[in-house]
Amino acid sequence: MERKLVEHKIAIVILNYKNWQDTVECLMSVIDVTYRPYRIIVVDNDSQNSSLTHICDYLKQQGKDYLLLTQEQSEVDEVVYHPLVLIQSKSNRGYAAGNNIGIRWAVRSNDDYIMILNNDTIVQRDFLEPLADFLNSHQDAAMVGPKILDSNGRIDRNCARRRPVLREYLFRFGLLKKLFPRNKWVLRHYYIGEYDFNAPREVDVLAGSCMMIRSSIIQRMNYLDETTFLYLEEFILSEKLKNLHKKVFINPDSVITHKQGASVKNEPSLFILKKGIESFYYYLTKYRRVPSLVALIFMHSDILKYYYRKTKLIVGIK
Predict the structure, then answer these.
(1) Dihedral pair phi/psi, residue 100, rounded to 5°
(2) In 10 A of CB 293, how many CB atoms?
(3) What is the mean pLDDT of the chain?
(4) CA–CA dist 177, 156 (Å, integer)
């Protein structure tokens, strides 16, 4: 079907941290997309393992030209158009702060729509058209995301989630979830039984692995909240959009694969677990106005897990 909608400029922001192999594989798919015009902005989040050198080597082998910038240059240099921009951050301040480096360059470049795309994703060649066309034709939509599959081709239910009600946390974490894994709060959160991923639908929360947002909106909300280091970014973004009375949609005509969805998750490090707890506490108290004590009760399972593992390390128990 011929596309008659006005084409807007899209910037795809990809954040790399150490795992440059995944970033290269993601780039291989993104470079091949059919939509025009679009640009790719890769931000290396101070990996300190020569990640950007490896990515540059790959691009040279493929005969792809690129613009290489330091973070300082991306913030103050005169903007020049280039379809592929690589930016080296000066420090690792977390997921939101790293993505904001690329987002700010896209805003300075006057791109219309900005996509945040995880580096462990593989996209289909035509995945941008349904998302851009949806924003073009639905002026009430501030953000849209694709249907996301795991490596086995199964739908990742995280790509369409409902805003959690507070009592839901008691049944989605800890002992009650183990006792009642398919309780009504879990089903409600993931629209299970309500949505079959065959048509666009308004949702509360998209998966943070792929989200396309209007540039004007992300500027209005003062970019991603850099208080968190890792996790809960999409929930915080959802709250910001809710406060602006803006709508979020999923359009399953666009499809990507998120490799992490089928990967065997290793036991998370204490650092990652600690950052997750901090982000959860910040989200609950800052954006949901939950009293501190109540937030800690909701988080009891992760807090106990953290101190249990920390104690094991201290006393040398494997």
Answers:
(1) -60, -30
(2) 7
(3) 91
(4) 19
Say yes or no: 249 and 312 in one domain: no
DSSP state of 287: I
Q: What is the residue whose two structure tokens read 């989605």?
A: 172
316 and 200 housed in the same domain: no
Peptide bond into 164 cis (omega under 30): no
Place of tokens 């506490």: 281
Residues 153 and 214 in one domain: yes
Give me the pLDDT at residue 173, please.
Answer: 62
Whether the model pTM is above 0.85: yes
Structural domain range at position 318: 266-318
Residue entry with tokens 């600690």? 274
**250 with 283, same domain?**
no
Length of the chain counted residue by residue: 318
| Burial profile 193-217: b = 16 or more Cβ within 10 angstroms, e = fewer | eebebeebbebbbbbbbbbbbbbeb
**How many folded domains does the chain comprise?**
2
Q: How far apart are CA 88 and CA 70, in angstroms?
A: 5
